[in-house]
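dude i think i finally got it to work??
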Amino acid sequence: MSIFRHFRFGPLDRQLDTKGRISLPVDWRPPAQESFYLVKVKVFGVPGLRALTQGAFAKKLEDIEGLPDSTPRLRDQAKNMLFGATVEGNVSAQGKLTIPKALAEAHGMTLPGTVTLIGRGDSFEIFTPENATTLETAEAKEREENSMINDVLNLS
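look at this
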């Protein structure tokens, strides 16, 4: 069995229109009849949004349920935090993902404006171009400082 599935790769600059819509490449769209769940995240301290398919969101909930050495209270807290940081993002038949205006603006995105999508395998993240640059610098620093990551990636 191959570990290669429907993955999203690399950074892409996209236009966010006045209604908070981004046109997604065909291979970045969720399976038919599915939405994305937009989760507020900080990656290396950089604020952004992570777009999870319904399947990836369900997997996240399963991971919480399967936490070793956890209590029901801890699992409930983790699920509550996940649900509290998440909004549903609908994808139109034309492949446009809608980010609610308040959510976009809370993350420094301007309507209209440019955003950067970063493919993360079965999910992707959305940042302002400035935050994407900051994140790229932080990830490069982590590769330099973490020999295990550097050795396995062999990108330098």
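The chain has a mean pLDDT of 88.
im so relieved honestly
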